[in-house]
TrEMBL record:
InterPro entries hit by this protein: MukB/SMC, P-loop_NTPase, RecF/RecN/SMC_N, SMC, SMC_prok
Comment block on domains: Contains large globular domains required for ATP hydrolysis at each terminus and a third globular domain forming a flexible hinge near the middle of the molecule. These domains are separated by coiled-coil structures.
Protein's name in the database: Chromosome partition protein Smc
GO molecular function: ATP binding; ATP hydrolysis activity; DNA binding
Subunit-level organization: Homodimer.
Name of the gene this protein is made from: smc
Oxidoreductase among keywords: no
Assigned keywords, A-Z: ATP-binding, Coiled coil, Cytoplasm, DNA condensation, DNA-binding, Nucleotide-binding
Function: Required for chromosome condensation and partitioning.
All residue ranges annotated as the RecF/RecN/SMC N-terminal domain in the record: 3-907
Native organism: Winmispira thermophila (strain ATCC 700085 / DSM 6578 / Z-1203) (Spirochaeta thermophila)
Amino acid sequence: MILKAVELFGFKSFGEKTRIEFREGVTAIVGPNGCGKSNIVDAIKWVLGEQSTKTLRTSSMEEVIFNGTEDRKPLNVAEVTLILSNNEGHLPLDFDEIAIRRRVYRSGESEYAINNAPVRLRDVKELFFDTGIGKSAYSIMEQGKIDQILSSRPEDRRQIFEEAAGITRYRQREVEANQKLLRTEENMVHVESVLREVEKRYHALKAQAEKVERYRALSEEIFQIEIKQSLLKYRRIEKALVRHRERLRERQEERSRLKEQIHRLNDSVEDSLDTMGSLEHDLARYQREVYGLEVKRHSLSSQMTLLSEQISEIEGKISTDRVREQHLRDRLLRIESSIVEKEKEYERILEERRHIQSQIQEWEESIAVSERQIIAFEQEIADSEGMIGELEREREHLHGELANLTEEIVKELDEGLKRSNFSAKERVSLSHALRESLDHLLARIRHRREILQDFKRLGNPDPPFEEWLEEMARAVEQARDLYAAYLATEPSFLEAFTAPEGIITKKRAIDNLLEDVTKKIQSSRERIAELQTRIREVRTRNEQRRKSLEDLRLTSTRIATQAEALRETVNALLRDKEETLSLINQIQKEVDLSNRRLDTVKASLHALEREQKALLQEEASCREKIVQIERNIKEKNSAISSHENEIKQKMGELSRLQEDVERLQVEVARYEEEIKGLETYFEDQHGRSLREFLQMEVQENPGDLARVLAEKREERRRLGNVNFMAAEEFKDVKDRYEFLVSQLSDLNKAKENLTTVLQEIRRESRELFLATYEKIKVNFHQVFRRLFGGGRAELKLLDPSDPLESGIEIFAQPPGKKLEHIGLLSGGERSLTAVALLFAIYMVKPSPFCILDEIDAPLDENNIGRFVELLREFSERSQFIVITHNKKTITGADNLLGVTMEESGISKIVTIRLLGKEEPSYAEDIV
Ligand SMILES: Nc1ncnc2c1ncn2[C@@H]1O[C@H](COP(=O)(O)OP(=O)(O)OP(=O)(O)O)[C@@H](O)[C@H]1O
């Protein structure tokens, strides 16, 4: 984390909006006295939550707002923003850059914001817990702070040690826990005092409530006994009522049953009289029926004889028809087999005809193809003849051109020869001379060879070669001269003749064209002759095809006639078949008809037989019924007289029952009236219905109940006056009392928890503090020796038994001096000692950035050197912003910021980066 920038507006001398950018390493802020350097430090402290006006060097918080100058009006708001880079996550916020802003208005309103979101001062403080940064931490060191470190009160030094130990957070938690503990104890005291009050009332009301309780219990018991007494009476009457009702119901049922029986007997007598009437009527009817049935039976017998004769006649006709039908079926089989035969023959002929037809079609198609071929050949002949005409016209034209060209060649040749003085005579004589010379040379060579052979034969070893060669060379020279003279006679213009664009070349081209044209004419004529031969051939073939076609057509016609005749034969056979089939059908119909008639006649005969049988049965049954009816009439007569006797007896019984029923009805009404009276009395007495308690069981006897009731009533009377409100009041007080007791117990538990937490915090704080303190102690001695070039320094806990409260004493022994309490050191020595302590702390817990405001002022040249060296060393780990007037410190810085007051009373920032290189003179001026 580094401090990237500070933006100020309206803060002290920064009346204009100013942004001060910081970089890593050591930055020196320089400028004349009173130009506003320390105001920058104040601004940073202010944003970090400084509330002390003394530390801010003002008398009130509004004084930090720009007060105006002679030329500028005062402002109403002061605002400072710190911009920190949080790439390494030192601060517990998930942002790479954090902007913390504080604003104060003249009205006194103040506000904080982190990344533009409004926050509380507490949030800002918590953000920097244990980072070494903060209004009272060690990241900002100024003369006042040096004094604080070295002040005579050892307790004041503790804070920076605690910050380095990282126990600020624990301190905060401890304070909070202590506050909570205090609040808990206060609450306990309060709860206890209220509880005491409530407890007194609780006991007083408890006794009254118990009396009310007893009174209510007795009343309830009395009520219960009274219910039981009433229930016993109620049940007694009810029992009698039920018994009487049951008896009444029995008598009524008996009466109904008797009435029913009498009614049934009357009905039965009436039914018997009705039955008698109908029986006599039936008897007469059956006697008439028997007579009728005898007559019917005789007529049926004569009909049945007639039908049997008809059946024999029909059966004879059916057998004759069946013989006829068989004859016809044999004939039909014969006809069908000849139809199949003829159909096959017909199919074969048709197949043959189809075959011939397809042949005819093929011949016709090939004749048509040949005709088209002839037409194509004739067309090609016509085209070739047209082309021959054109070629002949071209040949004629080329002949004309050739004649003209030949004339031109002759003319040009003559002119060329004339121009070149060509002499044919001279050329011929030179060619003769050349030939002669060469012949002469050849003859000489042959001659010398013969001489050489003679020399060899004669054995003369030395022929005159030199002489011969001399002679030969002369002869060759002569021939060469002649040849040169011959070449000189050749006319030079001939070359132009034979050149590619020369006239001879043109002639050759025309010759070639003529040859081409002649060849083309020749080949076209050959093609015409060939085509004519092919046309003749094709026509001859077509003639033969036409003849074959004619034969095929004749055969086809003949086959068609045969097919027609066969079709006729088949049709005749089919007609014959139809006729035979219809005859067979007719016979079958007749047979069916005869069969149906036979069935009908047989059915009629059977029906008559059945009818005859039925008549016999009916006659028998009628006779049986007559006997039965006569017996029934007798029985009915005796039943009627018995029923009439029974009715008389039952009527006597019925009048006795009627008297019983009327008496019981009077009894039941009396018991019902008694129950109603009991219920009304109970309701009047208790305001509740007795019916609510009908299910209740009563074990006791009436005597016991009466005795207990008298006792309970006496006890209740003895209770005297009762405060019925006491019970309700007691309930409220009891709830409150119990609530307070439970609260007190909760508070006790909370107190115990807080005490444990506090012990834990103190234990951890103590361990952390001691570990850090020991490290700082060792570092302090080492850094001191470096800064002083020797000597000794020590830290001491004033009360080692309570390190969290103990003051810290500093002892220092500069080289060559005695170990002394720091109060006795010189100003410079004190500053150097404080710086040593500061760096010793940094070694344990480096603060991410550190601001030193003129802490080098009291140091001499030697000490400044060592201070700057240490500063540079530590700048590897932390960012240092140093306000200084010292040139050595300035020279040791990486960056320079100048503060000026170009306009009186308004601070302005000038950035000077490379001191002594880019703008040395300006830096010097500012310093
Ligand atoms: N509220 C304010 N409005 C305007 N100017 C103010 C206000 N408060 C302080 N100043 C001016 O700020 C200046 C003091 O600035 P500061 O103490 O930062 O100077 P410095 O550069 O640290 O000086 P030195 O080097 O002497 O310590 C004074 O001129 C004072 O008038």
